[in-house]
């Protein structure tokens, strides 16, 4: 799919935040970053591809773990500086093997982990 | 509610991204930024308070528009560098008067606006 990635607004590092949401359940699974080429690759391949800030390399989600993300729909926000990816997630999205990276609730008296790691 | 805001990871500007999700429908409404004090204020008051990068000031969501966000639950992600806010949204979340800022779908042949502004 052709899309003018230059129409998006990137930060000083050339990155834009991308929120991954389960296309069916609506659960927010993770947030990671893309550069313009990662956006283009994601749209071209349908496989969600982030930019790894630590490795400074493309991060084809699930390439090593098998926990891939298939793009169902990509949305841009009003300021064109954030992306919402509606996806189909294979297995857990989080590197801790949990469905979502947002498994810790801040509450009175401390924090509570509300999600268990999935079985391998 | 006491929470050690220094336990979060902020970027070079001292900010952390915060995703606002409708606590009931699961719809992702917007993404904005908080600094440590905005996180503390949000937890103390239950009124979602961001940090405005353009104004360099607290942004108590809805203070002028009336379109407030009441915090239901705050979650941190595995890396502690992103927040997920489950909220109750009064009126539209977006400054365009739409329910969500993510009203534009990127698709073959262009972009499609899938949400109309709400009536005043």
Q: Count of helices of chain A?
A: 1
Number of domains of chain A: 1
User: Strand sequence of the main sheet of chain A, in spatial order?
Assistant: 2-1-6-5
Could you give a short account of the major beta sheet of chain A?
4 strands, mixed
β-strand amount of chain A: 35-45%
CATH superfamily of chain A: Phosphoribosyl-AMP cyclohydrolase
| Assembly classification | homodimer
GO biological process, one term (chains A, B): L-histidine biosynthetic process
Catalytic activity (chains A, B): 1-(5-phospho-beta-D-ribosyl)-5'-AMP + H2O = 1-(5-phospho-beta-D-ribosyl)-5-[(5-phospho-beta-D-ribosylamino)methylideneamino]imidazole-4-carboxamide; 1-(5-phospho-beta-D-ribosyl)-ATP + H2O = 1-(5-phospho-beta-D-ribosyl)-5'-AMP + diphosphate + H(+)
Subcellular location (chains A, B): Cytoplasm
Function (chains A, B): Catalyzes the hydrolysis of the adenine ring of phosphoribosyl-AMP.
Short description:
By secondary structure, chain A is mainly beta. The first copy, chain A, contains one helix and eight strands.
Describe the protein.
The structure is a homodimer of 120-residue chains. Chain A contains one helix and eight strands. By secondary structure, chain A is mainly beta. Chain A has a single domain, classed as Phosphoribosyl-AMP cyclohydrolase (Ubiquitin-like (UB roll), Roll), CATH 3.10.20. In chain A, the strands form three sheets. Chain A has a four-stranded mixed sheet with strand order 2-1-6-5. The interface between A and B is medium-sized, with 34 and 34 residues.
